[in-house]
Write a structure and sequence with these properties.
By secondary structure, the chain is an all-alpha fold. It folds into 2 domains: 33 residues; 37 residues, no CATH class. It has 4 helices and no strands. The longest helix has 17 residues. The two termini are 24 Å apart.
Length: 74
């Protein structure tokens, strides 16, 4: 890894988990901007599946505060 890459990596570690996830997403998209074909539909189907499972009592939910607290501990 080059010196510049190491510096960028170290700076990225100082970002919040959400910011790091957004950075990762943008870096991945830079390799193949057309890679998102079908991804939106797949996420839509996954979201619907999770909603159905929640409505059926098969899935429990955490509060938003609990979720973000867990993410930010990492």
């Amino acid at each position: 890894m080059s010196t510049a890459s190491k510096a960028i990596f170290e700076a990225a570690l100082g970002l919040t988990p959400t910011e790091r996830a957004e950075l990762i997403d943008q870096l991945q998209r830079s390799f193949d901007p057309d890679a998102d074909v079908g991804v939106v539909d797949a996420w839509r189907a996954e979201a619907e599946s999770r909603i159905d499972a929640f409505d059926a009592g098969e899935l429990q939910a955490d509060s938003m505060d609990a979720v973000f607290a867990r993410i930010n501990r990492r």
